[in-house]
Amino acid sequence: MCRIIRDGDALLAAGKQFDLVFPDIQMEGTDGIETAKMLRQRDEDTILIFITGIRE
Q: Cα-flanking dihedrals φ and ψ of residue 51, to 5°?
């Protein structure tokens, strides 16, 4: 099943473990980097593929 969650805070609050997450490096709320750190602190094996819409 695919779910679209638009910010890191909502992802972390979802209370579920996801197999694959595409966090935006500069998403609103908790950004993708901080979200990834928090997922790793939970010791989750989620695959993270970072994306962004900025050129830098």
A: -135, 165
Segments in the chain forming alpha helices (H): 8-13, 32-41
What does the alpha-carbon distance between residue 9 and residue 11 come to, in Å, rounded to a whole number?
A: 5
- Greatest CA separation for the chain: 33
In this structure, is the dihedral angle defined by the CA atoms of residues 34, 40, 45 and 47, taken in order, positive or negative? positive
What is the residue-level pLDDT of the chain in tens, covering all 56 positions? Answer: 788 888 899 989 998 888 999 999 888 889 999 999 999 998 778 999 999 887 77
In 1-56, which ranges are E strands? Answer: 20-21, 47-48
